[in-house]
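Hi Q.,

Before the meeting this afternoon, I wanted you to have the fe (ii) ion prediction in hand. No need to reply - just skim if you have a minute. The sequence and ligand are here:
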Amino acid sequence: MLYSAKTYDSQQRLSRWVRTGENADVPGTTAEGLKQYRRLFRNNINNTLTQAYPISLEVLSNEQWNKMVDGFYANHDAQTPHVWKLPFEFYQFARESDYAQKYGFPFLNDLLYFEWLEIDVYTMPNKYPEPFKENGDAMNDLIEVNREYSLERLEYPVHLYAAKESLNHKGNYFLLTYRTPKDFEVKFLDMPPLHVLFFEKISNERLTASQIIDQLLVQNNEIPKEQLAQNILGFIQTMMEEKVFLGFSENYLN
Amino acid sequence: MNNDINIGLGFRREIADEFLTGTSIKPDFIEVAPENWMDMGGYWHAKFREATEKYPLILHGLSLSIGSPEEPDWAFLKKLKPFLNEFNVEIYSEHLSFAKLDNAHLYDLLPIPFKQDSIKHVVKRIKQVQDFLEMRIAIENVSYYTPVDAEVTEDVFVKQIVEQADCNLLLDVNNVYVNSFNHKYDAEKFIDRMPLDKVRYIHMAGHHKISDELIIDTHGEAIIHPVYELFDYTLSKMDRNVPILLERDFNFPEMEELQKEMKNLRNICIKNQEQDVILS
Ligand SMILES: [Fe+2]
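Predicted structure with the ligand bound:
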């Protein structure tokens, strides 16, 4: 660094003023100019965050929201050069600072994350599928899965109920957020645990549905095979309609 | 882009379709901030691709923070370099300001103290970035609302940096106007003191006057007459064409209005080009 200690100190004072609004005695500045920088900085960050978190904004009081945002830019060192990714850092900050507990809204972390997932999946870099065909044998051909998704576990089903109502339904939920090919829409699907097991295997291992069903039966022999196969077949059909499964792989098993 | 008159418009999501399928605006090139499009998939990736197939692209960055005390963000620059190549970007410009300090992004353009040590520091940073990218970058004079511990004037600061770093200048004429108003100096004299042979690119924009004492550089209004005049004055001092951008970031009017502003800019360019021919 070729800045003198004094110049560097002026920059630190200016940045501290902008981030905290605490009088930092920045040398050789005007009060009016400083006021504008603080205002522009807050507007910019607040706009980015309110656009990302409309539901959370509605659930929290203005005072609660503003306190969280003020705390965020005063205390959190933003890492991403892409301002549209900043809401993720805000979610992390809110979770680490435990605003869910402070505000008595235990669902807050799940709610913020749910809202972030929509942005995350909408903007995620393209992941192109392998060659696939539309028709095939659902049980015995390899299924080509849409890779543009995120599968997350939530404690509060903020994807199924209004945020405050989700308090009455605490449990173990799995949320699939995915982007449809061609029209790039983000969709959400609640997935029961059995289907999560199946989905993780089909998307991460080169296995057919019937191979996975055999594995599931070893783990859980309470469901009759016939019933499980029917259930999975129905799931596959729904996933095909929803464009979570794209079709059948052109790359045959060897 | 050839050496002719080129008038561009910022490619913004709110009016993206106007660029792609509309018939009202006809820019010669588009400008985007790489930070807003790199790493992005899905819908906007597709729209951006479409736009770059239709128009030449100029990049105007936000996060390089050339005035930061810390080292340049090498991880970002490593991703930027292939992006520049992929879209045949001839001009990559950045702001003469800092937007990051002590490892925290501020997403805002803060003024660098106009001081001799700052000049040395920024010159070194620009050289580092140019060496890495293997191209000259263009540095923009920014609008600022207060000086910080200044020991030299803004024109000296800008000129010395551009000359010592051997970089290009992105001359934002609206910023010169805004700063001359807010800090009470003569805008034409400021232009006279700029290294005009280093100008690679020009920005024009509207602004918002919030009081008799203060203008904020918003890019949310039409260009006002005195800024056109300052633009005309600037071109009269230059002997060659550089791309001209109309910056409009929000509060979008009818597209015909933007097209009219671009036409005004073009007419001023034509007028000055003809005068150059007469003089030579
Ligand atoms: Fe500009």
